[in-house]
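Re: Re: ligand-bound prediction request (bumping)

Still looking for help on this. To restate: I need the protein modeled with 5'-deoxyadenosine bound, output as structure tokens. Inputs repeated here so nobody has to scroll up.
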Amino acid sequence: MSRTFYIETFGCQMNELDSEKIAGSLLHEGMEPVSDPAKADIIILNTCSIREKAVQKVYARLGEVKRHKTRRGGDLVVGVVGCMAQLEGEKILERAPFVNIIAGPQKGHVMPELVARALETRRPAIDLRMDDDPEPLETRHVLRVSAWRAGVTISEGCNRHCAFCVVPLTRGPQKDRPSSNIISEAARLVDQGYLEIVLLGQTVNSYRDPSPPGLRFAGLLRKLAEIPGLKRVRFTSPHPNDFSDDLLDVMVSCSQVCNQIHLPVQSGSTRVLLAMRRGYTRERYLETIRKIQSATRAIAISTDIIVGFPGETETDFEDTLRLLDEVQYDSVFSFKYSPRPNTAALNLPGEVPEEEKGKRLRRLQEHQNLIQYNKNAAYVAQVLEVLVEDRARANFSLAGRAANNKVVNFNGPESLIGKFAEIQITGFSANSLRGVRVQ
Ligand code: 5AD
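Reply:
Sorry for the wait, this slipped through. Here it is.
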């Protein structure tokens, strides 16, 4: 009987794709995915380390996994992989000595080997090397969760050193994938029926084609949009400094490129941005936003914000609130600053107390909620093309996303899942729209 595996993913879209690569590699070796950890011979936690809370979550989950281990003994292989594993390394064994595999975020292709090694040696198999192996960018086997939306890696790692961020330490420097490989993977996915391609990279628009066409990100996007049959292409996340006029041009002129951009600002105060080492000022960021907002195609804009970065004063924080007013974001992901190991921000003075961080986060979210509520009102009576994803949480049978990434809830048959539907908007909240199908 073949071994069964269960993978649990924490964190970002890149981690979700990494899990699909792990699953693909294990499947290719004859192992079988299961949806119940109690039925698995291999349990893999694919982890995140962006904030301390993400790390704590994994340790808490490991406490639960331990019960399976106690029940199953040496039979069960437990793997902790991904960013938190890269960061914590063998320290994981101090708190969870029953763990059998520890590996970094680009190890999907060697996972079958690590499983075999752990079973054979009965000792933890550890792989924290960050090498130049091209395989992580070119993983041959991917077991995809969705049959209509597919993530495609265009680069791995990050060359920026934002003072708060641990990612350069977990994923290493930026490595770009040759454009021809990206384009042929996307074309293959379209042939298989995928409707939406999501290009993934840590700073996705810093992409530099290492092969002869030498494409920049905008050029790559233009080529991808030309693939016959591709309905939608998105990308995440771009860095504001690499947002070029050429990229805006592609977003305006290619209808397949979704009219949505996630442009992390982190703070509305130039002083804080400088301390964060973001490489732009409030004014320069706003210039980019104005360009996007004056384009002939309406493009929805979202962002990430950190509150309570060391040295952030009440005035700095109010600058961020004013930035929200000025930009009128379609959505905002906001976080309390979390000190991360070996990052530059650790040495900065002016720690903001936890309680104050919490207050600022709540104020920011309330402020933004009102903006979103008012913005969403403008969609009433519009008809949006929605890619139907799955059952909605409450009251509605289905949910999907418009090209601009708005969540739209509506009633309809389950057979619509994975297809496009035209929805006329009849209502809204701060976080989603609702509507009815138009035939
Ligand atoms: N603390 C809080 N938030 C962080 N982010 C990255 N590092 C930290 C940290 N140390 C946020 C940033 C980033 C998003 C993915 O996570 O806003 O854009």
